[in-house]
């Protein structure tokens, strides 16, 4: 009976949906986390009688035909690229990106990764790094005797010194933009890698060519909407239960068939 296999695909799809929701809720406090959503598509259809087929009985064409669906599959787990709310922290190396764009960081293997997590730190050598120790690209070093750090919306990093009136420009942070942000590969640690689907990064100054600007002393919160996630969780649970009931009903029907004398 096809109903057993079809209901099984439905249960598997709802299980995947619950896993995506679970990951969203687990990351509702993760800086700059983008919520994910499971997208589904129907499977192939069995053409019992194709639309337009000539009816052998009277020679007329069937207006709709008979197409029996074979279930559902996970088509994609897409990323919501909407920006999370900005939260004031007061940290001089805390940066939020207002608008599109990603900070570029260097991985230990020499490749580049991209992040919207602007909770930057200063390494033992004074280099600006992420929480996991990855240097920003281009690298910027803060002198040991710097009294204060200021970063303007255009990404220019200045240091103030006790013996100088004017702040000194240390370097400029850039942002990377992508044609298809949803095509980026998440690698954990709030980092993303470019893929053929995302396109190559276009590097430039903040505020140019559609890229966002930097806001010092703020961090971007997670874009997870807890109320919507709980609503989706209830919906997924009900969908799972209904597909389980289909399997129970199909099993009972098969049992009734085998008992016919």
UniProtKB/TrEMBL annotation:
One annotated GO biological process: bacterial-type flagellum-dependent swarming motility
Residue span(s) of domain Flagellar hook protein FlgE/F/G-like D1: 96-159
Domain Flagellar basal-body/hook protein C-terminal per the UniProt entry, residue ranges: 215-260
Family annotation (InterPro entries): Flag_bb_rod_N, Flagellar_basal_body_rod_CS, Flagellar_FlgE/F/G, Flg_bb/hook_C_dom, FlgE/F/G-like, FlgG_G_neg, LlgE_F_G-like_D1
Source organism superkingdom: Bacteria
Domain Flagellar basal body rod protein N-terminal: 4-33
Keywords: Bacterial flagellum, Cell projection, Cilium, Flagellum
Keyword Membrane on entry: no
The keyword Nucleotide-binding is annotated on this UniProt entry: no
GO cellular component: bacterial-type flagellum basal body, distal rod
Major localization class: other
SUPFAM superfamilies, alphabetized: Flagellar hook protein flgE (SSF117143)
Compartment(s) where it occurs, according to its Swiss-Prot or TrEMBL record: Bacterial flagellum basal body
Stated family: Belongs to the flagella basal body rod proteins family.
Quaternary structure and interacting proteins, as annotated: The basal body constitutes a major portion of the flagellar organelle and consists of four rings (L,P,S, and M) mounted on a central rod. The rod consists of about 26 subunits of FlgG in the distal portion, and FlgB, FlgC and FlgF are thought to build up the proximal portion of the rod with about 6 subunits each.
Protein name: Flagellar basal-body rod protein FlgG
Organism: Halovulum marinum
